[in-house]
Amino acid sequence: MRKYRNILFYVIVTASLLFIMHKIIQAGHLLEISKPIKSNASNASGTSEIFKEHITHNLSSSLSILLLQIIAIIFTARIFGYLFKKIGQPAVIGEVAAGIILGPSVVGLFFPAFSAFIFPQNSLSTLQLFSQLGLILFMFVVGMEVNLNSLKNKAGNAIVISHASIIIPYTLGIGLAYFLYKEYAPANADFLSFSLFIGIAMSITAFPVLARIIKERKMTDMPIGNLAITCAAADDVTAWCILAAVISIAKAGSSISALFTIGLAIIYVLCMFKIVMPILQKINNKYFNKETLSINMLALMIGILLISSFLTELIGIHALFGAFLAGVVMPSTINFRKLLIERTEYISVTLLLPLFFAFSGLRTQIGLLNTSHAWLVCCAIIIVAIIGKFGGSFFAAKFVGESWRDSAIIGALINTRGLMELVVLNIGYDLGIISSEIFTMMVIMALFTTCMTGPLLNLMREKF
User: Which domains, from first to last, does the chain contain?
Assistant: First the structure.
């Protein structure tokens, strides 16, 4: 009986309200007599024309274009990442290759109308902002993967190898910049900024890619794997400190301004380690549940990440350095970092980071290297990069007492550049320090040196 009563109530209330709405709309039509209404109806004669205009209008909105771009980027990135893993390469290389293919080098060259439709010029600024957000989250994860205690305990050999693998390629990079500056530097770039950026681009190591290669090859429990990870972590910390100084010099424009920026950066780093880090450790000890990460705790850590990124951008050393530093000072409890990495890495790696690869691909114009001279310069960059990074870490490892085989393995791993190289290159490009040609050459170098890591490691195992 109650069931039928409910149905009757529903029907009566709904019918009554529909009748009232109908009467209000009828009365409202009388108001149109005193107020002329401009019709938005389409003049199209047929249903197909109306449908076409409707779809075209909706596709032209910024949100529709962004969603279409994200769909195309993620779909292409996942396919290429899978294919490259199948041939023994890191998935990140496939994702970078997917970005290049979506850019002017392939799709833009062979299907210009389609490329202009998906990636119109006025939409790229939005795509860049989303890609930068992905990088901020990713650098936060990279910072958390750096184990400061491990660096302290294994500082001896690792620091020697790491710093040799930075200073040698950096010096070669500055030497190379001397020959590239006149022909390839942007008109408004001074030699100091140009040479310092070429140096840092030559000396960077992709710590996240290297760590994943070591994990995939089951080298994490081997002494050589631990040494390589420690060297790469020391490389990362040192390179990002150098990059922060280089950015401050490039942005400042004068030596006094640069010193002021570097001074603020040093104060900020000290505050993060001496004030923020102990406070976070106390919060972790008091409130952290060993098995789960509460929403409030996650919100606090993300808030610290964003504040740190904002402050370093304000200081003038780029938001990415603040994100990296925020990750480094996170509570050192292994389970805490593991849970926090899981919460932030998935959204970054799956959704936002591929946008960065695509945006880098849109900037990579292989068609600019349209002469034999340009390709010779590109080959020279690759050779100098390998000699500096592989050679520097190889000889440093041999000097501190490693075997020939282990020294060669360390050299091959430290020579991995991958994503971190793209981060540096995009910063240099955004600041107007490197040109499109140099950007493209360096991207090719990053892909080549990262792709050679796997085959080199296979060769070491076979030969020794």
Answer: 135-463 (1.20.1530.20)
* Burial degree of 241 (CB within 10 A; 0-12, 13-18, 19+): middle
CA–CA separation, 117 vs 113, rounded Å? 6
Distance CA 162, CA 396 (A): 8
Under a CB-based contact definition with an 8 Å cutoff, are residues 353 and 134 in contact?
yes
Residue-level pLDDT at 360: 84
Model-level pTM? 0.77
Residues 6+ apart with CB under 8 A from 416: 205, 206, 209, 210, 213, 449, 450, 453
Angle, helices 124-145 vs 353-363, to 10°: value is 120
Look up residue 74 and give its amino acid. I
Which candidate, 352, 350, 348, 302, places its Cα nearest to that of 327?
302
User: Using one digit for the tens of pLDDT, what is the confidence trace for 367-398?
Assistant: 888 899 999 999 999 999 999 999 999 999 88
Q: Which residues contact 222 (CB under 8 A, 6 or more apart)?
A: none
- Across 255-285, b (16+ Cβ under 10 Å) vs e yields eeebeebbebbeebbeebeeebbeebbeebe
Q: Residues in the chain with pLDDT < 70? A: 33-60, 147-156, 220-221, 252-255, 289-290, 461-464
